[in-house]
Known about the structure:
The chain is α+β, with helices and mostly antiparallel strands. Helix content is 23%, strand content 33%. The two termini are 61 Å apart.
Amino acid sequence: MKSTSMWGRTAWVTAAAAMAVLALGCGEQKQHAAVETGAAPVDQAAQTPAVIAAASTTTPEAGVTTLVGDGKTTEDSLPPDVTAFAPDSSIVPGTIIEITADASTDATSLILTDRLGHKYPFAYDAEAKAWRVHYRVPLGTGVDRLGLSVTATTGANRFKRVWVFLKIQGGVPAESDGC
């Protein structure tokens, strides 16, 4: 029993030593390659990627680098803004409810998705200037709170998702006594 334990320890020590030799060997090769090419001291700013260098400024006295935007944010690069509202009262399963959403003007579609994966498209009500959809709460809902996602999408395929939670009346069934 002791010989197998000793063998295991020897194997671990040998593996660790081999890893250390390999790691040191790689470092020596990198240093040797730098000497062979005659590389001059490297300026850290010269190694900064072009995108970051173009969008950053360095204050020499403070030694602080700050990223600055290039001022080219477009309407297509931002997701739409959306908020959604559902009835606050407890809802009986099987009831049809109306969910209303307000979205920014760049939103081209709104979709309601329930936990079953069913998707319902919102329709825009021009008079109310709001998005509306009707949803039937499933009969077999065994929860006291049901989460629905509302996703607004722009023409540039940017999206934002918010959640609406419904209070379900009698959602958690009582345990039966076996009758």
